[in-house]
Amino acid sequence: MRPHRGFAVAAAAAFAMAAGSACGPQQLDGTLVLEFPSWQAADESFSAWWLELIDAYEQENPGVEIDFYQVPFDSFVAQQTTRFAAGDPPDVVHLPSSNAVAFATRGWLEPLDERLAETDILQEWTPLQEQMKWGEDYYGVLLLGYGYALFYNEALLAEAGVDVPTSPDELLAAAEAVSASSDDVFGFGATTVQNPDNYTELTSFVVGGGGSWSDPDGAITADEPVAREALQQYRDVLATAPPGIQSQQRNELFFNGQIAMLIDGPFLLSEVRGAPAEVRDDLKVAAPPFDVVPGGVSNGLHVPADADPETADAVWNLIELAARPEWQERYTELAAVPAPRQGSVTEEALAEVPELDLFGTLADDAVDIFPTAPGLRQEYGRVGDTVASAAVRLFATDTTVDDVARNLQRELEGVGHGR
Amino acid sequence: MAGDTEVRPSDAATRTPGRGGDRSPRTRARREKIFAYGMLTPTLAVVGLLTAYPIYVAINLSFRGGEIADLQNLGRYPLTLANYVEVITDPELLADIWRSLVYTVGVLAPAFAIGLGLALLLNRTFPGRRIVRPLALLPWAVPGVVVSAAFSWMLDGSFGVINYLLRSVGLIEQNVAWLANSSTAMTAVIIPTVWKFYPFFTIVLVAALQAIPHDLYEAARIDGARSWQQFRHVTWPALRAPAALAIVITGVGVFREFDFIFPLTGGGPDNATRTLAVRIYNEAFEFFSFGVSAALGVVTMFIAGALLLAANRAIGQGVR
Amino acid sequence: MVTVPTAVPPTRGRRAPRERRRRPPVTRGQWWLLALSGAVLLVLLFPVYWMIMTSLVPSRELLTSSPPLVPPLDTANVDAYGAVLESRPVGRWMWNSTLVTLGTAIISLVVSTLGGYSLSRFRTRAQQVMGFTLLFSRMLPGTLLIIPVFVIFASVGMINNLWSVILVNVAATVPFTTWLMKSFVDGVPFEIEEAAMIDGCGRLRALGQVVLPLLRPGLATTFTYACILAWGDFLFARTLMPNPNDWTITVGIASFIGEFSVDWGGLMAAGIMSMVPMLVLFFFLEPFLVKGMASGSVKG
């Protein structure tokens, strides 16, 4: 035993004795308990699917129980980081996909290629599954990949006398028309304080205009004309957005009928259904007003590296069950988002949620808003932070677009080369 | 004025260990020493066990290179000074330190002023004081999580009530996006922190005020001292030591405070509120650079330690 | 606190409080003081008032450019409280918080009284260094220490165990409370103790029988301080007790902030409920906090 580890154990043992208690091992009376923390365990739309899936799993696998519990979204990634870094990862690993690469590069996740080869997942899955790849290996199974859509308030647009926009210019014109109509109503909604969501919102404009932060080799392209144009569009459109608000606030204002348009993923639809009755019917979805559909990966399931084989197999069985066609269809029905398996949108689901048709098409066409260059993917946090800072300069300062672009170019180049 | 420099016999006594009516000074001194350390042992044990090991890990970590993934087996990773080189050569470091100082002083000064003002008020006798006092301390009872959520709601740039109130009284004309604007963000994170911390000053200072015997004021009045002179010569000397301690304790807490800044701004906009504590968190949990984060932590520890020493000297008898 | 170095003629201290106990009639100046206090409280407690507003009024009505400043009678309701109590185990969270808080406060009180006494009465160089080290140990942000702390408790299976949170909260509190207690002990003249020791009491008994009663305000302050810190702790609780059954009230409240939306009404309702125990604590301990010191015996 390494000396400092020994110290830790001794110290902790002293406490354990002082406290007069210590927990038992994971396996009691031969039952294998899989720990499964998730930020979706108390989520209204997704948790229903998880609970059904887990029930089915426990019936199919007697002797295995799943301890599925909620961890608040705000602290979820920090909590998982702590657990992995401390060498005590959970059994079923559920991660927001933007963070998954960082976990994979640290060797915290088991490569799944061999297991995937025995299934049809790689053939039947959305192309966004490629985002679950690091180096040569897949380290996870994508649960939700999507294209961004335009959510809009039909009544507000009609009052302002504008149509649903189909291009960035129309978006700006429509947003300005709505904003001009009242003090308490805004044309567009966005996150207007610094937040990781600034990244997705700004990058949607860039990718939507056919640009990117880098080419596949990692050369930064934030200062190209395409990107600059998108930065300008973002700044102009956000001038019609409520200033100084968090993304949850943005959503709330949209549901209250105080924001006419916003761009977000299909998961927002289930939240839209919770809007006040008098607004709900006005809230509609359309294709985003861009030439290219920007898209993203939401979350996926993973097996922790270094898990004992029995646990790893049991976790994989859960993933494999979740990937079966019937559970993928169920996912579509309960969460009202297109599941990653092709053709999971059933007639019944479509009858219930007509938007699924559009969401399906968008997901198929989507171009991921995160650059594919490995150097940048590995540094997701830094890239996100850098771009978010640029976004803040665009919506909260007078810095010229050229300066913002040049600065961003330089800073992103620094990220690629650091470490 | 009454000699606030006069040293009482007991003062001298407490300053000399093992003094006082000893018949056999040496044995007594040794017994005293054992006793002294014996009483400090529980403190050292609980702090040592749960702080020494984490600090050891942090220091060890700060010297490790490579893609650190397992903090239990740091020996696997090569020793390096690269983390320190990166931290110290980063021109941003000075800005981070500066922001930490601005935040700390920006919180301490108003919190102390409010705390002192309230303490002087609450020390007076008036009807309803029994109700007013606990209410004045109420912000202290509000958990940090709730404080930051409440203020993010009130500081909302579009419909926050703070903007509405300021507009109503004519202090601002347009809504201010407090948390999005780099010139207002620091103020916006200082306000909730002040709100949370002033009651501690109040409670400490009220206790100190109550301990001042009334006779002293009477004597001062007889000497013809006005209220300001009474404050200077009677009140303030009695408050100095507890005030100094409260400032140091709070200052240490605020310098490494994270609970208010992070939920409100995450260190933004454009790093305007990125203090050392926020940066340490971001390096570890957003960027996964555990080594850099730990090196920053160690640097922070030294800076804070130096400040503490300086404060200790400046305050002189306060925290002796 | 109160190492009041001002020379107090010891014999006269006793009379002051007795004189004050006779209640003189309320003067006009005192009413003014009350009015001033009211005005100050109005400003200082506005955030709490606005939290109450938010818990009573649908957030939709507050999200306008001129929100109502008093709850509108027709739409204000206590539904948020009902919904929170019904859908979330607030009672359980509060109970967990109570256990953590009491455990932390009691252990901190004992440990820091002993430590504070030692630091106050024995001023050797080594003691001073240790006292300083205590404060120094609090310089590293908890966010950096949390992973090693997790390692310690995980290695003995004490994750999801209340004791782990209590112990780490004690470790976080004691460096401060020890200093706090030291300054209170400083305020107790050594002669009192010395007299007791000459009477045949040992040092420990002198501490228990003579010094401790005089430390009541210090004990109350330390207890309150530890309670506040432990009750408000979020980082340790959320890291060491991830299981929802073991959540404390702060972790529970944080869960109202969702990925897509914040339940403001619920969050504020739970936030208000989370203040009540500490307010009750203030109400009961406050006289000890401020009066004990003035009781005169200290200076006797």
UniProtKB/TrEMBL annotation, chain A:
UniProt keyword Transport present: yes
Signal peptide per UniProt: 1-18
SUPFAM superfamilies, per database record: Periplasmic binding protein-like II
UniProt keyword annotations, A-Z: Signal, Sugar transport, Transport
InterPro entries: Bact_solute-bd_prot1, SBP
Protein name: ABC-type sugar transport system, periplasmic component
Species in which this protein is naturally found: Actinoalloteichus fjordicus
From TrEMBL, chain B:
Region ranges (Disordered): 1-27
Compartments it resides in: Cell membrane
Pfam families: BPD_transp_1
Ranges where the ABC transmembrane type-1 domain occurs: 97-311
Topological type in the membrane: Multi-pass membrane protein
InterPro entries associated with the record: MetI-like, MetI-like_sf
UniProt keyword annotation of Transferase present: no
Primary location class: membrane
Keywords annotated in UniProt: Cell membrane, Membrane, Sugar transport, Transmembrane, Transmembrane helix, Transport
Listed GO CC annotations: plasma membrane
CDD domains reported in the protein's UniProt record: TM_PBP2
Membrane-crossing residue ranges in chain numbering: 34-56, 101-123, 135-155, 197-217, 238-255, 287-311
Any Gene Ontology biological process: transmembrane transport
PANTHER family (alphabetical): BLR7065 PROTEIN (PTHR43005), SPERMIDINE_PUTRESCINE TRANSPORT SYSTEM PERMEASE PROTEIN (PTHR43005:SF1)
Family: Belongs to the binding-protein-dependent transport system permease family.
Name assigned to this protein: Permease component of ABC-type sugar transporter
Gene source species: Actinoalloteichus fjordicus
TrEMBL record, chain C:
InterPro entries to which the protein is assigned, alphabetical: BP-dep_ABC_trans_perm, MetI-like, MetI-like_sf
Entry keyword Iron: no
Biological processes annotated in GO: transmembrane transport
GO cellular component: a single term: plasma membrane
Primary location recorded for the protein, binned into one broad class: membrane
Composition bias, Basic residues: 12-22
Transmembrane region(s): 31-52, 93-117, 129-156, 162-181, 214-237, 264-285
Localisation: Cell membrane
Chain ranges of the ABC transmembrane type-1 domain: 94-285
Region annotated Disordered, chain positions: 1-22
Domain of life: Bacteria
UniProt family annotation: Belongs to the binding-protein-dependent transport system permease family.
Record protein name field: ABC-type sugar transport system, permease component
Organism, as annotated: Actinoalloteichus fjordicus
